[in-house]
From TrEMBL:
Protein name, as recorded: YopX protein
Pfam families hit by this protein: YopX
Signal sequence, renumbered to the chain: none
SUPFAM superfamilies the UniProt entry points to: YopX-like
Domain YopX protein, residue spans: 5-124
Species whose genome carries this gene: Bacillus paranthracis
InterPro entries found in the cross-reference section: YopX-like_C, YopX_protein
Length: 224
């Protein structure tokens, strides 16, 4: 039987509290009384999955795991990696969209905890370079703006434009095929293959551009 314990994130002081700390501090015990629901001060209770990563670190809901998506072979020059967040729903723990218990051996032998959604949200941003611009895929326009302000060191966005594109049935495209017009460039998730770069297209995009010739930056946000 899996050990039952939790963590919780303090929003004001930005501290992740362990199960022992929750049990020893009265203010944290109050979260147990309200069923562990999220409020203005704390995250919801984040349960332990009962699984450890390849380094022996316990995996909790809210953690971000890094794992291989393409292994090095004679055809592929290097192993590539992706990040997934751990969630709970329908009485199961999930890694991305897949139930974590379907790949326990792979998770415990190949994956590692690299952060969590509260302290390291940027790890879930898909960052890549294209046409001398930096791109970041986010969940929505607001998240893209927040990322822009927090990580690009700009307090206000004075000049930007928003563009939207529907990709319909075409789901793969190479960088060379992308149109030059920035408003028409689709959000992409790079997947590296030997001999070139193939990109997986998403359905929609929102684009925010900083007009700076010396350090151009575009933030692309998409539903995914």
């Amino acid at each position: 039987m899996n050990e039952i314990k939790y963590r919780i994130y303090g929003k004001e002081n930005r501290i992740m509290y362990s199960w022992e700390e929750i049990l020893n501090f009265d203010s944290l015990k109050d979260t147990l009384k309200n069923g562990g629901k999220e409020d203005q001060y704390y995250s919801p209770l984040l349960p332990y999955t009962g699984i450890k990563d390849k380094n022996g670190k316990e995996i909790y809901v809210g953690d971000i795991l890094k794992g291989p998506t393409l292994y090095e072979t004679p055809e592929n020059t290097a192993t590539t990696y992706s990040h997934w967040k751990v969630t709970y729903g329908n009485c199961s723990f999930y890694l991305g969209d897949s139930p974590i218990d379907e790949d326990i051996d792979w998770v415990s032998e190949e994956c590692e905890v690299v952060g969590n959604v509260y302290e390291n949200p940027e790890l879930l941003m898909k960052v890549f370079k294209m046409n001398d611009y930096d791109w970041v895929a986010a969940k929505n326009e607001e998240e893209a703006k927040n990322f822009y302000e927090e990580f690009i060191d700009r307090e206000e966005i004075e000049e930007y434009f928003v563009g939207e594109v529907s990709l319909k049935d075409k789901m793969h495209i190479s960088i060379d095929e992308l149109p030059d017009e920035e408003q028409r460039v689709a959000t992409i998730e790079p997947v590296i293959h030997r001999g070139g770069e193939t990109c997986v297209l998403r359905s929609f995009e929102w684009v925010i551009k900083r007009d700076n010739i010396t350090n151009p930056c575009i933030i692309a946000s998409t539903e995914y």
